[in-house]
Every structure is written in C-alpha cells, then in structure tokens.
Write a structure and sequence with these properties.
Layout: E1 2-6, H1 11-22, E2 26-31, H2 38-48, E3 53-56, H3 62-72, E4 76-79, H4 86-91, H5 93-113, E5 118-124, H6 147-165, E6 170-176, E7 178-180, H7 199-207, E8 214-217, E9 229-230, E10 232-234, H8 235-251, E11 254-260, E12 266-267, H9 268-279, E13 285-288, H10 303-309, H11 317-330
Parallel strand pairs: 1-2, 1-4, 2-3, 4-5, 5-6, 6-11, 7-10, 8-13
Antiparallel strand pairs: 9-12
Helix pairs in contact: 1-2, 1-8, 3-5, 5-6, 7-9, 7-11, 9-11
The protein binds nicotinamide-adenine-dinucleotide and uridine-diphosphate-N-acetylglucosamine (UD1).
Length: 338
C-alpha cells in the first residue's frame, strides 16, 4: 500500500514509519521539520533498511501539499503534522488553528484532488476535557479546555463532515492518551526542543542529568497516592494501532473516533518508581503545587479499539521506561548529537 505520512519525522510519526516500512508499505513523508529532525528519518532508514520519499514542506502550503499528494497518488494518508503544546496554544492560538485546522482542510482538499479517500488522523484524549465519568469512552462529551484541544476537536468535525460528503471515504480519528517510550533499539525516541512539558521526557532528562529534579505537580489528588493518574501508551503499541487503523479503513466507510490507550491508570509516583528501576538510580523529586488545568485521573475505555481494529496494547510501564531510558542514555541530547 502507498501511504502519505504528514509529520512523519516527529515522535509518533517516526515510530509509525518503522512499522509501515517493516510491513512492506511504500511511504512518502511530508514534513517541514518545525519540531523534528531529518536525522530521525535517517535512523528510520537504518533501522528498517528501507527507503522512503520525503517532501520538506508545510501543511499550510496548499499548492505544495496538492502537488505532493497528486505526484505520490497514495492509497491512504496518516496525518500527524501539527502543533501540540498546550501552553503555547494559549499564547499563539492562530498559529495552532492555521496549522492544525486549516492544515487539515488543505490536506482533505488535496486528497480530493488526488482521489484518495482514506485518512487516519492523530487526535487526542484532550478533546474530552474534564471527565464526567471514567474510563473515557468515545461517547463521552467533547469539551476541550484549551486552544490546542479545540483545534483537535474542530479537525475531527471537519474530517467527519468530509467523510459524510465523500462517497466511499473512510476516516479513523485516533484519540491518543499519553504516548511515551521509544523504539526498543534506542535509535529513535522523543526529542523535545525546549524544557519538556510532559512527565516522561522530563523524568528521562532528570535521569540523564540534564535537569536537577522533577517537580511533582500536586500530591493531594483523589488517587491511590495523591498524584495525577494517566493512561500511558507505549509509542510502539501506538504505531501498531495506526497500521490496524489503516487496515480497518480499507474495509469500512464512514468516520470513527477510537481511543488508543491501555485502559490502565498509572500515577506520577508509580511512573517515577518504574523509571528508577529501569535506569538503576534514584530520580530526585520535589512536591510542587498543582498545574493549572490538570485533572486527577484520565484513562481510556479500550473496547472499541479491540472491536473495530482488533488491536490492544501489548507493552507495559516497565517496557515504556526501559525503552525510554535506552533512548535517553544513548542520545542524551536527542538527535542533536548526529
Ligand atoms: P511531533 O511534534 O514530534 O511531530 C509532529 C510533526 O509534524 C513534526 O515532525 C513537525 O515537524 C511536523 N509539523 C509541524 N507543523 C507542521 C507544518 N505546518 N507542516 C508540516 N509539518 C509540520 O509530535 P508527536 O508527538 O509526534 O505528535 C504527532 C501528532 O499526534 C500531533 O498532531 C499531535 O497533536 C498528536 N498527539 C500527540 C500526543 C503526544 O503526547 N505526543 C498526544 C495526542 C495527540
Ligand atoms: C498533557 C496535556 C494534554 C495532552 C497530553 C499529551 C496539559 C494540561 N495537558 O496532558 O492536553 O494531550 O499532555 O500527552 O498540558 N506532571 C508532573 N510534573 C511534570 C510534568 C507532569 O508532576 O513536570 C504530572 C501532571 O500533573 C500529570 C502527569 O504528570 O498528572 C502527566 O502529565 P503530562 O505528561 O503533561 O500529560 P497530561 O497532563 O495528561
């Protein structure tokens, strides 16, 4: 199958490329390297011993996108390209709407021009907002609480309307919970450009000595040990979910939103303990005030993914920490070292 992958050089994209190439698919990556490095693609080539086409361009550039899609003529698209920092989305919302919403509209129009009718989209559990009940199932009301989340909810609506209006179209909206970990080779992984906002990359940088200590944002939540509970999903399991979604899109029409998580909540303290075991050293922590906008618990209902995609997570928190540590310890400065 020919698969057009926007944002393929990024964290989740690069792991999905490994899975796509290993399965024998032909791939074209479309990325402007806004938040990623061409080194990640070189490593993917080394890992798989396979090549791929690469177009360096922006999803906001309608002409470039249409040209790339019509030239490659894919069977399906996986759409990772986007901006993802919640805090930044409050400061520069228009850039988020232009990239995440207009970029998605451009992509769908370009797919129409290239007669491509299948798309798998990177959405987020953040579209649910505050939990009205747990676990989050796909019927939970959509009520995002920040501009980033609203761009994802809007892009989902745009894709849903496109799928309704396009005969035989198939769209899968994958709502990721908390992607973490790295490829088991330690050759690719998450490489935040600035101070990490998310827990796992921050813990990894403390472990490798790039940061002094982790601030635990609140230990007075209504959870097992008072710290926030999340559904961490290994990025290699997440990559496999994309292949399952592509297969599903070949046999189904319409638009489906599907959670991608393990269904298990892990607290901050539990994750830190698992990381300490993986790296064999203590992680310095301090208890800090709650982070505004955080919730106590978030975890997925996973039955829809099992039913429609025949997919479920296979890797656990020890795998996530061990693989993250291998990547971080062998690449302390990320891809910059190459
Ligand atoms: P990432 O930043 O590592 O990857 C995004 C890729 O898109 C990068 O390679 C970047 O260079 C590219 N890109 C950004 N703007 C672009 C533009 N205008 N034109 C072309 N390419 C552009 O992020 P990731 O963690 O791999 O996330 C991939 C997708 O999954 C994003 O859409 C993100 O919102 C979504 N998502 C991520 C998480 C997470 O925790 N990582 C959770 C839920 C959803
Ligand atoms: C964050 C985003 C969410 C996004 C998700 C992607 C916010 C408010 N939410 O969610 O929109 O979809 O990332 O994975 O930014 N923690 C610490 N110390 C840290 C960092 C985090 O204690 O330095 C805690 C948090 O309070 C939380 C848990 O670790 O309890 C996980 O945090 P994080 O990795 O940022 O993920 P989310 O909060 O789920």
């Amino acid at each position: 199958m020919k698969v057009f992958v926007t944002g393929g050089a990024g964290y989740i994209g690069s792991h999905t490329l490994v899975a796509l190439l290993a399965a024998g698919h032909e791939v074209c990556v479309y990325d402007n390297f806004d938040n990623s490095s061409p080194v990640a693609l070189a490593r993917v080539r080394q890992l798989t011993n396979r090549d791929m086409a690469v177009v360096e361009a922006d999803v906001r550039d309608n002409d470039a996108l249409t040209r790339a899609l019509t030239d490659f003529a894919p069977d399906a698209v996986v759409h990772f390209a986007g901006l993802k920092a919640v805090g930044e989305s409050n400061d520069i919302p228009l850039r988020y709407y232009q990239t995440n919403v207009t970029g998605t509209m451009n992509l769908l129009a370009a797919m129409d021009a290239a007669r491509c009718k299948r798309i798998v989209f990177s959405s987020s559990a953040t579209v649910y907002g505050e939990a009205q009940y747990l676990p989050f199932d796909e019927e939970h009301p959509i009520a995002p609480t920040n501009p980033y989340g609203r761009t994802k909810a809007m892009a989902e609506s745009v894709i849903g309307d496109w799928a309704s209006a396009t005969p035989d179209a198939s769209a899968v909206l994958l709502r990721y919970f908390n992607p973490v970990g790295a490829h088991e080779s330690g050759r690719i992984g998450e490489d935040p450009q600035d101070i990490p906002n998310n827990l796992m990359p921050f813990v990894a940088q403390v472990a490798v000595g790039r940061r002094a200590k982790l601030s635990i944002f609140g230990d007075d939540y209504d959870t097992r040990d008072g710290t926030g509970e999340r559904d961490y999903i290994h990025v290699v399991d997440l990559a496999a979910a994309h292949l399952a979604a592509l297969e599903y899109s070949a046999r189904a029409v319409g638009c489906e939103a599907i959670n991608v998580g393990t269904g298990q909540g892990i607290t901050v303290k539990e994750l830190v303990a698992a990381y300490e075991a993986a790296c064999g050293q203590p992680i310095a922590v301090e208890i800090a005030p709650r982070r505004p906008g955080d919730v106590a618990s978030s975890y997925a209902a996973t039955t829809k993914a099992e039913r429609l995609l025949n997919w479920c997570a296979a890797l656990d928190v020890d795998d996530m920490c061990a693989n993250s540590w291998l990547w971080q310890s062998e690449n302390p400065m990320g891809f910059e070292g190459d």
